[in-house]
Amino acid sequence: MIPPLLRANSGERPLRILLIGGIYGAVGAQAQRETPETTLEAGLIARGAQVSAGPHNWEVRRRQWDVVHVHHLAHQAIVQSLMRSGSRVAFTRHGIHQGSHTRRAALELIYRRADAVVVLSEAERDLLGHRVPRDRVACIPNGIDAVSWPYVERKPPGPGQPWNLLFVGQLLAIKNVDVLLRAVAGLGPDVPVRLDLVYDNDAQAPELRRLAAALGVKDRVTFIGHVDRVDLPSYYAQAHALVLPSQSEALPSVITEAALSGVPVIASAVGGVPEQLDGHGVLVAPGDVGGLARAIAATCCTYDDAIGRAALAAARVRARYTVDAMVDGHLALYRQVLARPRRGLLEGGR
User: Fold this and answer.
1) Which class for 279: exposed (0-12), middle (13-18), buried (19 or more C-beta within 10 A)?
2) Which pLDDT score, from 0 to 100, does residue 84 have?
3) pLDDT tens-digit readout, 146-204
4) DSSP state string for 94-108
5) pLDDT per residue over 199-256, tens digit each?
6) Which residues have C-beta within 8 Å of that of residue 173, sequence separation ≥ 6?
7) How many Cα neighbours within 13 Å face the side chain of 182?
8) Would you say 121 and 250 are in contact if contact means Cβ atoms under 8 Å apart?
9) d(CA 81, CA 348)
10) How far apart are CA 185 and CA 219, in angstroms?
11) Which alpha helices (DSSP H) does 239-283 contain, by range?
């Protein structure tokens, strides 16, 4: 049941929300992606809120909106934090990697001035420490529509068939795909595998193709590239395990998608990933080639146990990482922000 429409005040006017995010400036296949921002947008509209959305290069007149919610550290996150009148501002970073000194300074400004900061996991909240007062921080995990990710029963490959490993992400250095290729190369003949790489951003593709050839695994690795959203569940359905060896993550949607699909997960113990899996996957230290190879081998050699863990993970994410919970959490946050007195300039407010 759809909750009652959230009002910005005691009148009858619906809440007016502006969402700002990079997806709204994307073109081509990138623009068709479903992201946390677009999921939130659809959910808010379904509850009757007046929602507009735009990219970071928009010129925003803040007085038109009750809440301006900026996603990702980019131009408008800084601009909105510097304004001194108009809408309340919420900020979601969607990441925990600290980056350069300039980016860290920009984050400190935003944290000091935003009316609310949304984190995706308790691990991210802990990283904030005392930089943002606890009453201005809300932990709201991204939600995934479970209907789009049907659960599929798994079984080991037949005699002479390889184990199908799947990576879904971007070919960026922070994703440590090179570590995954080295781990595949380190597996013995008793664990034959094939690896599918699904991605949009192909920044490292040439480099990784060369590495696969140098390691002697190019015939076991398929660079698939972009896959339409409607077709992606079939890749999860065919996989024996999802492997995400990232150096840093906030709350990767691919972990939730894999869990909903019943795919055993092997991932780096970073960000919110341990919370997502809650002991129902295999965690390794980021950058540990040997540890990742051993985790893959152990998953394949004890696959019945891996399937059992995957079933428990599926049950947990269906209860915890829902679109309804995500939208309800944001509506509650907006209500809290609008109910508070405006913060004074000495407090970093507008």
Assistant:
1) exposed
2) 67
3) 999 999 999 999 999 999 999 999 999 999 999 999 999 999 899 999 999 999 899 99
4) -------HHHHHHHH
5) 989 999 999 999 999 999 999 999 999 999 899 999 999 999 999 999 999 999 999 9
6) 204, 247
7) 11
8) yes
9) 9
10) 11
11) 253-261, 273-277
Architecture of domain 16-143+322-347: 3-Layer(aba) Sandwich (3.40)
Name the residue ranges covered by the structural domains of the chain: 16-143+322-347, 146-320
- Do the domains 16-143+322-347 and 146-320 sit in the same CATH topology, yes or no? yes
- What's the distance, CA 162 to chain centroid? 29
Q: How far apart are the C-alpha atoms of 21 and 33, rounded to whole Å?
A: 13
Structure tokens at 295: 């985790």
When the pLDDT of each residue in the chain is averaged and rounded to a whole number, the result is 90
The yes-or-no verdict on residue 1 having pLDDT over 70 is no
pLDDT digits (tens, 9 = 90+) for 8-27: 344 558 999 999 998 998 77
Alpha-helical segments (H) within 143-186: 177-185
Q: Which two tokens stand for residue 247?
A: 């150096």
Residue type at position 288: D
**285, amino acid identity:** A
CATH architecture assigned to 146-320: 3-Layer(aba) Sandwich (3.40)
